[in-house]
Structures are given as structure tokens and as C-alpha cells.
Write a structure and sequence with these properties.
Blueprint: H1 7-14, H2 19-26, H3 30-34, H4 40-52, E1 58-63, E2 66-73, E3 80-86, E4 100-106, E5 109-114, E6 120-123, E7 130-133, E8 144-150, E9 159-170, E10 175-184, E11 189-192, E12 209-211, E13 214-220, E14 230-236, E15 241-242, E16 257-263, E17 267-273, E18 281-291, E19 294-297, E20 302-305, E21 320-324, E22 329-335, E23 344-350, E24 356-364, E25 372-375, E26 393-396
Parallel strand pairs: 11-26
Antiparallel strand pairs: 1-2, 1-25, 2-3, 4-5, 5-6, 6-7, 8-9, 9-10, 10-11, 12-13, 13-14, 14-15, 16-17, 17-18, 18-19, 18-20, 21-22, 22-23, 23-24
Protein name: F-box/kelch-repeat protein At3g16740-like
InterPro entries: F-box-assoc_dom_typ1 (IPR006527), F-box-assoc_interact_dom (IPR017451), F-box-like_dom_sf (IPR036047), F-box_dom (IPR001810), Gal_Oxase/kelch_b-propeller (IPR011043), SCF_F-box_component (IPR050796)
Length: about 400
């Protein structure tokens, strides 16, 4: 029996399994489930083994309201992006049937918002833990979310938090509506944050990106009667506040395609494609320094005229991407533009010297479900669970 093997040999065998297979194996043995897969030494060994395997370059994608772990291979003449498996929680048998509308990655955890925007769950696909979060009052369609953590001392356990906010214009009330509140997973409490933003707004299609526990967004200047420039804004989960406006390496505005990604969980990457002439040039920069109060940028990482390849601008409310620094390649996830033919989810692989490949991600695309990709690093982070009574306290800052 494999369960009779010495612990170090068990770790050696299990560390070579793909993550979806590892989850199935873990639940066949109570000891593995309770200790081995949640052990920091095993997690480190698993990451090292995964790095050795080309097929273990992994990302998480949301396609057609489902969440997948994808294997990425950009080495072959014909690159491949294939599903390793659909991610679902074995702690909740109904989760596989739940449609997911948005995902947000931080520290190996995924924050998932259901398609109907009525439920919120924090989920660790590596150890199978989930936690469904009850609203302070109610969730509604204008909500935006972010997941981050408080940067504490080296030996302190990270305090993970969820930011929920509304930043929209209510036409019936003829005024802007701004609401900010934070849920602390350690204390199971919501806290209302009184904050008066000095920017115009964070548009609904500007997705946040978590890096080193903080979340970054594009925001717009507050100019009366005008469309203001776009800048970068950081929410600091330690101070529970927004930092100063951070510069971007371009002059962007509403309608441009703007997207954020991370590189090695250490640096920001930003993608920019103009909405007016010349609309087809795609540019990507990687930060040289990044923090809640300061950011600086390297020279442009990649600049490609997309007119010969696609002839269209990537969607400003889709167009998520990831970067392979070594191969100097950018992979943009979007939809095809070929009416009246059915629309499909597609990966566009873009590099230097005319390198361009596409990978069909399968199935016809739902125009209402924008494909989304985010980085993913397996983590043994434990999700604090609610008290036995499920009580969640509410406070006001």
C-alpha cells in the first residue's frame, strides 16, 4: 500500500502528479488530505517538480462560466494551451454546477463571484478548501471585488481580506454612488470604509490585479465634462486605503484597451492598445519597481503592429494576458471577430520579428462571458473558516 510508504517517499511520488490528479489522490487517503498536501515542505517540493516539467507552466482560465487549470506549452512550432482539468471544490459537491462570472487570484487563492452575482467564495484549488462569504447587507450587480492580504511580520500569519466596492453613477438618483467595505477572513467581520475618491471612477471593465498582497487598478481623472487620462491606483490591504496616483508608461484614456498582468508574482505588466488611429499597435511594459506608493517602468517589453495579424482592437473589457519573459512572448486571451461565423474563445500568441500564432480554446464563445486568464501558483495557504454559528460581525471605520 502506498500509504505504508515512508513520508519522504510519499512526497516524492505525489509531487510528480498534475494538480488535478493530486486533488483526487489526496481524497483517497485521510492522512494525505489532513497533513501531506497542506505541508509547507511538500508544497515547496511540488512547485519545484512542476517547474521542471514543461507542461506544468500553468494558468487559470475562466471560459463559458467555468474555471479551468490550463497547461501552456510555447516551445513547440505549434504552441498548445490545453485544459488539465476543470477546477471544482470537493468540499462542496454543488460547486461544479455553479456558474462563475468573475475570478480574482491572490497568493494561491481564487476569489470567485457567481454568474448571478449573488454569492462570493474564496477557494484554494490546491488543498480544496472553500469559504462562502455572506454579505454585510446584500450583493448586487454593480459590485466590484479584490482579494489581498495584510503584510505583517515575517513570522505572522497573513491576514487575507476581501474588498467590495461600488463605484458607479446612479441615473435615477442623478449622482455618483461610492461604497467601500472590507471583509477580514481571520475575524469574519465586515468593515465599512468611509472614503471619498478624488478620481473620476474605476470603470466596471477595469479588472484589478493582486500583487504582493495589494491590488492595482486603472482609474480615470476627475475632469468635469471631459474624458480624463487613465492612471494606476493601488489599494493597500495593510493600511486599508488607496495610495497616490501612480504613473503609466503611456497616455491612455477611456476606450483604449488596457490590461494588467503579473510577472513571476514580483512585477506588474501592462498592455496598451489605442482605441483610435493607429489602433492596431499593441505595447507591453514590465515594471522595474512596484509598490503601493511608487512604480517605475522598464523600456517597452514588446511593441507589435497587429493590423497584419488581426486587424482589430482587443476588447477593452476582455483582452486579459500573460507574459513569457524568456521567450519574449505575450499571450492575449480574447474572442474571434469573424461574423457571421460563430465567435470562439482564442489565445493570440504574439512575439518579435513577426511571430504570431493562435490557439483555439474550444467551444463557441458566449458574448456575455468574456474569457479571462490569470496567473496561478499552487499554495498551501489555509482559509480561515467562519465560526460554528457562521456569525460575521459588522463594523464601521
Amino acid at each position: 500500500m502506498m500509504s505504508d510508504l515512508p513520508r519522504d517517499m510519499e512526497e516524492e511520488v505525489l509531487s510528480k502528479l498534475p494538480m488535478t490528479s493530486l486533488r483526487r489522490a489526496r481524497f483517497t487517503c485521510k492522512r494525505w488530505n489532513n497533513s501531506l498536501s497542506k505541508n509547507l515542505s511538500f508544497t515547496k517540493k511540488y512547485k519545484n517538480e512542476a517547474a521542471k516539467r514543461k507542461e506544468e507552466y500553468q494558468v487559470v482560465m475562466m471560459l463559458e462560466y467555468k474555471v479551468y487549470l490550463m497547461s501552456v506549452n510555447l516551445l513547440n512550432p505549434s504552441p498548445s494551451i490545453e485544459p488539465i482539468g476543470k477546477l471544482f471544490s470537493l468540499d462542496d459537491a454543488t460547486h461544479d454546477g455553479v456558474d462563475i462570472g468573475k475570478i480574482f487570484h491572490c497568493d494561491g487563492l481564487l476569489l470567485c463571484v457567481t454568474k448571478d452575482r449573488t454569492r462570493l467564495v474564496v477557494w484554494n484549488p490546491f488543498n480544496g478548501q472553500t469559504r462562502w462569504i455572506q454579505p454585510r447587507d446584500t450583493y448586487h450587480s454593480c459590485d466590484r471585488y479584490a482579494l489581498g492580504y495584510e503584510n505583517t511580520t515575517k513570522y505572522s500569519r497573513r491576514s487575507h481580506k476581501v474588498l467590495r466596492f461600488v463605484d458607479d453613477y446612479d441615473h435615477s438618483l442623478k449622482r455618483r454612488v461610492c461604497e467601500f467595505e472590507i471583509f477580514n477572513l481571520n475575524t469574519s467581520s465586515w468593515k465599512v470604509v468611509d472614503f471619498n475618491p478624488g478620481w473620476m471612477m474605476i470603470q466596471y471593465f477595469y479588472r484589478g490585479l493582486s500583487l504582493k498582497g495589494n491590488t492595482y487598478w486603472f482609474a480615470e481623472e476627475n475632469l468635469v465634462g471631459k474624458i480624463g487620462r487613465v492612471f494606476l491606483l493601488c489599494f493597500n490591504f495593510t493600511t486599508e486605503s488607496f495610495g497616490p496616483r501612480l504613473p503609466l508608461p503611456f497616455r491612455g484614456r477611456y476606450g483604449d484597451t488596457l490590461s494588467l498582468s503579473s510577472v513571476r508574482e514580483e512585477q506588474l505588466a501592462v498592455l496598451f492598445q489605442k482605441s483610435d488611429a493607429p489602433a492596431y499597435t499593441l505595447k507591453v511594459w514590465i515594471s522595474s519597481k512596484v509598490g503601493p506608493n511608487a512604480v517605475s517602468w522598464h523600456k517597452v517589453f514588446l511593441s507589435v503592429d497587429m493590423k497584419p495579424f488581426t486587424g482589430f482592437q482587443f476588447l477593452n473589457y476582455a483582452g486579459s494576458f500573460f507574459v513569457d519573459e524568456k521567450k519574449k512572448v505575450v499571450v492575449v486571451i480574447d474572442m474571434t471577430r469573424s461574423p457571421p461565423l460563430p465567435i470562439r474563445n482564442m489565445a493570440y500568441i504574439i512575439g518579435e520579428n513577426g511571430y504570431f500564432k493562435t490557439v483555439d480554446l474550444g467551444d463557441f464563445a458566449n458574448r456575455n462571458c468574456w474569457p479571462l486568464v490569470c496567473s496561478y501558483v499552487p499554495s498551501s495557504v489555509k482559509i480561515n473558516q467562519a465560526s460554528p454559528l457562521g456569525n460575521q460581525r459588522n463594523t464601521r471605520s
